[in-house]
Design a protein that fits this description.
This protein has 206 residues and is mostly helical. The chain is built from eight helices and no strands.
């Protein structure tokens, strides 16, 4: 399994500064771009294309917190965690709110689709706007929770600098991998809920 952290010359850690990662990616991209060996033989060109593709895959993975944590846990545990399991108590309130508001939006959209009268459609316009505003407010809360998780990842970074080396018996405990997996799952929930809300917002805009 490729270590994307090593490919981008980053130490293994939960949080990475986005600007630093971006600068490293662009610098390495310039060095590894296949155009630099376009005059070489097929073998060299094929290798350059593979290396460049791997570098791009590493960038796409590490720039997204959820994907980065999934890869990090896979490196440490030997297997990528499942995206979801039972909703944690911390996520339960948001889970119910998202479900209830999405069902309300679906009911409104269904009623709107059955309404043929221009007058009734005009009257429903205000209801749709109100629903859109509530969905946007809930999505903002989800974004706030995501920012909190990013802060938690920064706090976890210190343990990674002082942890025993990979393969050591005490490494998993020193890195609090159980907590990291919980944060990974929360990122999964938030991404799914944000997508569900965005889908309704788009439908309400028509």
């Amino acid at each position: 399994m490729l270590d994307y952290f090593a490919l981008l010359e980053e130490p293994r850690r939960p949080w990475i500064d986005p600007d630093t990662l971006k600068r490293k990616f662009f610098a390495l991209s310039a060095d590894l771009h296949p155009d630099r060996v376009h005059a070489s033989g097929e073998t060299e060109l094929a290798a350059a294309n593979r290396n460049f593709a791997d570098l791009n895959a590493a960038w796409q993975c590490l720039r997204e917190p959820k994907e980065r944590l999934g890869h990090l846990l896979e490196l440490e545990l030997g297997a990528r965690p499942k995206d979801t399991q039972d909703v944690t108590p911390a996520a339960m309130e948001l889970f119910f709110e998202v479900g209830q508001l999405c069902r309300e939006a679906d009911g409104f959209l269904s009623a709107k689709a059955r309404t043929a009268s221009p007058l009734l459609q005009a009257q429903m316009f205000g209801q749709g706007m109100a629903l859109s505003e509530r969905l946007a407010a809930l999505r903002q809360r989800i974004q706030g929770r995501r920012e909190e998780l990013l802060g938690a990842l920064q706090d976890l970074n210190a343990a990674w600098g002082s942890a025993p080396p990979p393969g050591s018996p005490g490494r998993a405990g020193a890195l609090a991998l159980d907590r990291l997996e919980g944060i990974y799952r929360m990122f999964s929930y938030l991404a799914r809920w944000s997508g569900q809300i965005q889908e309704r917002v788009v439908q309400l805009s028509f």
